[in-house]
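Please, structure for the following, as tokens.
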Amino acid sequence: MTSKSARSERVPAERLPVARVCVDVPLPHLDRPFDYLVSSDDDAVAQPGVRVKVRFAGQLVTGFLLERAESSPHGGKLAYLDRVVSPEQVLDPEVARLARAVADRYAGNLCDVLRLAVPPRHARVEAQGKNGTEPGEGELSPADGDTTAEPAGDAAEAAPGDAAVEAPSEPGAGPGDQPASVLPPGKGLPAAGGWDSYVAGAAFLRALEEGRDARAVWGALPGEDWAVRIAEAAAAAVRAGLGAVIVVADARDLDRVDRALGAVLGEGLHVALNAALGPAERYRRFLAASRHRVPVVAGTRAAMFAPVAKLGLVVIWDDGDDLHAEPRSPYPHAREVLLTRARLAGCAALVAGHARTGEGQLLLETGWAKEISASRDVLRNRVPAIAPTGDDPQLARDPGAATARLPSLAWEAARQALKAGAPVLVQVPRRGYLPSVACAECRTPARCPHCSGPLSLAGARDVPTCRWCGRASADYACPACGGRRLRASVTGARRTAEELGRAFPDTPVRTSGRDEILDTVPGTASVVVATPGAEPVAAGGYGAVLLLDTWALLTRSDLRAAEETMRRWLSASALARPAKQGGKVVVVADGSLATVQALIRWDPGWFAARELSERRELGFPPAARMASLTGLPEAVAELLAAAKLPDTAEVLGPVPADDDQERMLVRTSRSQAGALAAALHEAAGVRSARRAALPVRIEVDPGTLF
């Protein structure tokens, strides 16, 4: 067999083109492109964005061809590309620039980001539309060495509804083709009572239609069909001949957006990306976007890197949801990736949700984005009646409201709603039956005698079981007093549903949680007990929404506990009917708390400004930039010793972490964020060049700090 270098020996090496390749070797000190010669046989297919195989340190590794050059600054002899895996240009130049910026921001490696951005290859799926043949589902080309392994980030999500697939196109369509950006006359125009209900809402759509880089933070009204509003914004961008990328937190939200895009845009103009689709179908839809056959791409977290021609709009819904944070290195957040993408592409951006995060408030205060919100008159017509159970007037009427799990105010609101034939939503923070129990005599928390893990009850007739090791403790005895009876410390959703079923014996009671999530419920008398994020939509809205066990959310030892509580309360309360239609929300909490006050007034902007002001005083994100270093003490100390941190950097810690590890925090001003990330990445490169055996996990702006 003739070698590639022999086949190209007739052409002097100095006259051959050069390919700059990002090799899939996740070592920080090798995080740079490497130059390879392109043989005359590969010259036509070795284009930027294709997958290639190269020899690196004696091994055959995969990589992406980033760009072509006439020559290389490398003084030594260059190796040839081993082969081009596929002529499919799956890595857009715009996405490649974005990936480099994301890697730099999060002190990570480019190859790790590209692994998040481009799904694994399916050779036969690539052939679809190229030669007119239909590929076998999930078949691969073994010679390419590709894997069908699905990225783990969104694998637990349920598959969305029927999504639009790629529109028919001529064989050989490639990334240079223009998106199908022309809508039929009158198609995709905003409905009355939609965006025009918001101050600056109509102006935002006009800016999108004119192709301007409008950037906004949108606070959706309660009862809003937010998926349709987002689809209308995407349609405005399409009318301007531009594309849009829409990112939501989970498959339930994606299903809503998918249906809304199909109704507003029509068929063939969008794809919905979700890891739960399966490797072959997901790759087929990715190719529809990569070949620029659709102008709009919606999806869960991984869609933040979706290729779109002439990007005009990026949208993220509910950016405070922790599902937007990528759990794989370099741990980017979808909001930050999309905002970086908007800056690099010069396109419009929309950060949307019922609640507002500190990061969203910072965008407004710095002037980077403008606010889209409803006037108070419109808001009063849309919000439900919201009342706490812990204020003085209520305690005077019901002295037991301070300690009761379901005070009389909440009970009466549920009874009236059911009497009127409306459904009732009950939000509880914990799933299961009794996730935490204690001794009935001395109130000592019940712990597993084997591993000291917390005991729980899965049902009324079940024995206590450890939540850590899974061992049953049928003969449990309290080590403090010897008592054998247990009582509930925390009540879960299933136990709550059981209690409400006895209270309302003639009313159907449903549960919605991680094990079984309901999408919708009929607008008839029923009780729905749901954990946060699993609340189904009721036809016509809920007559009453009860927010129970609020202490479990408010007392969490987390910097974002209050912000997360506000987000979960607003998301559930937004499902209630307006007050004029009898809708009520009862929050079992003290009415003097800032979170409760913001909920009563439906003022997430005031609450976000308050939170940001407090974090600015304390030097916490997003007012400052922080990096977390986790590993064994000697490894963390070695990395800090090698890091040339900015002068303003402040090292905090150590604090204990899991598995005998420790955690150090490095804090600096936002103006020094780039310098901090560069210093940490350079220090990681020094350690990898020295072949340090002990790893250190580097997270910039981690989701949890303590």
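The first strand starts at residue 18 and ends at 23. The radius of gyration is 28 Å.
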